Known about the structure:
Layout: E1 13-14, E2 17-18, H1 23-26, H2 29-37, H3 46-76, H4 80-108, H5 124-146, H6 151-157, H7 163-187, H8 197-201, H9 203-211, H10 221-250, H11 254-272, H12 275-281, H13 284-290, H14 303-326, H15 334-355, H16 357-362, H17 377-390, H18 393-397, H19 411-414, H20 420-435, H21 437-441
Antiparallel strand pairs: 1-2
Helix pairs in contact: 2-9, 2-10, 3-4, 3-5, 3-9, 3-10, 4-7, 4-11, 10-11, 10-14, 11-15, 14-15
Amino acid sequence: MSTELKTEQQPARNKRGVIAEHYHSLQSLSAIEAAREAMTVEPATKEALLVGLYQSAEIALHNLTDLLDRAAEHLGRQDLDRCVTQLHWVRSFHRVLVRLSVDALRVSDGWSGDSPRWPVDSTPAFTEFLPAMQGFDKALSDFVEQGGVDVQATIAGASLESVEYGILHCARIANHDARVWSGNLARAAHPAPGVEIGRLLASDHLRHAVHEHRLTGDTYFTQFRGLHQIPELLVREINDRLEAATRAARDGDVGRAVELLDGVADLYAPIEACLPPIVDNLSTHDYHQIRENLGLTSGSHSVSMRFHLFTDLYEQFAEAIGTLQDSGDGHPLLPRLRRHASDLRVFIFAWRDMHLHLPRNNLGGQETKSLTGSPDAVRTVRKMRDNAVTSDPLARVAKRDHPTSGSGPLAGYLDGPGSSDTLLLDLTGRATQENFRDVQERLNFFAQRTPFSRPPRRVV
Length: 460
């Protein structure tokens, strides 16, 4: 693949489109931040939790609209292979929406039963999604009526090896999940009944975030970005709450710290729900179609997640917990505060473990370099995870031994010559290096150094 070098006036491009200059641009984080700043509710409130979940649902719905339009087009052309791939992504985004809706219901428990409910069917993204859903259903009905495939026999006698069965199976799973999440959201609370929906959601900013960067061809670039944008949106609320909770803990206001962290805990599951769709659906080939357009970026360049949450705020919160423990304060809520600290630790390391799938599945081993020039992408990410375990700030302040090894009893076998893991990592690495010689040999655009530099520490 060839890439034109960027000039001062013009960003670099390849045949598919613009190559991201940095992670902030790749994920359209300016639009994500603008959407959050435009909220008409105060951060670190229950209202902000709901708005964040509803904004995330809008991002998911915009992605579903894109996927369903493409799936309907492929089905109409009898391109079943492409259609079923789209529908695997559709199914996964419905699952993300189910998760978001369940957590919206949980947060809504703080409102009285006669409070106004969320008008999900009036949101801008839903009004675009519904015609796309209807368009796909029409294409599927036409496909069944044409009789090119014995649909009844497929349902009764085929299994997952059948593309036709895959289309029907994904569609019915997605339909049920759509019934679930739409019902949940319709029962969830309205955080600001007097505010116009589009303004409350900052819908224009969200739509811009989803569609700002689009590539030519049938890629999953938009979905790759969307499943990063939702965590980036929600983690900003987590960070604001964790910062405020740290201050409260330092002041001895344990009850306020616990209240803030109750809201943090409501956001772990929807953030975690965004990684499995990428892991499960993004094939090595599909990732390779968009890899150059990711530019000199890395997930480790996420300032809000990698630096603010995983490092700066976590460390300072752990220190505040340690100071409270050393003070001998027997506050009755201190065990809950310690439990919140433990839950945060588990979330951080669960995210790190799940994120390792991405370089493993799409880059492989054999000293395959990352986009930013790390000599072995998988080894680098694994080392970052292991270093974080051994230097865990919560383990330091807990004053008791914590396991520091990131490996378990299967690590030796899985890293050995007889393991399918070793075989598949090697094969994936060879394919990646052959497809991306510029990246591997640091030529042309990839001869540049990454422009990213460590951000200033977020000090509480």
